[in-house]
Amino acid sequence: MSDSSKQPPILNPKNKIVFNKIILIYSIFYLALKIYAIVFMNQWLVENLILSSPIIVIGILAHYFQREQIQNWTFILLSIGTAIILRLNEAKWILQIHEFLN
């Protein structure tokens, strides 16, 4: 009756493509917001660049994976986890980096 080997819908291979595209779009959007904050809101340049470096790497990897049609659950989960941790601690970490550099 029910096939126990059937994958849940979230594990459908097409979803990996969608998640990879979402990660790529999020990376572009995040960097655009950082550039806006640095240029128009006079935020600290070095601190924001340091904090944005993981998202820059994730965006470059997502672009490469998208271009080469490589889908990897490990990359997707680590990217989502990194983005969540970064967004939750961003304000605190920017201040800590600023204090460390000055």
From TrEMBL:
Parts of the chain that traverse the membrane: 17-37, 44-64
UniProtKB keywords: Membrane, Transmembrane, Transmembrane helix
The protein, known as: Uncharacterized protein
Organism: Psychroflexus salis
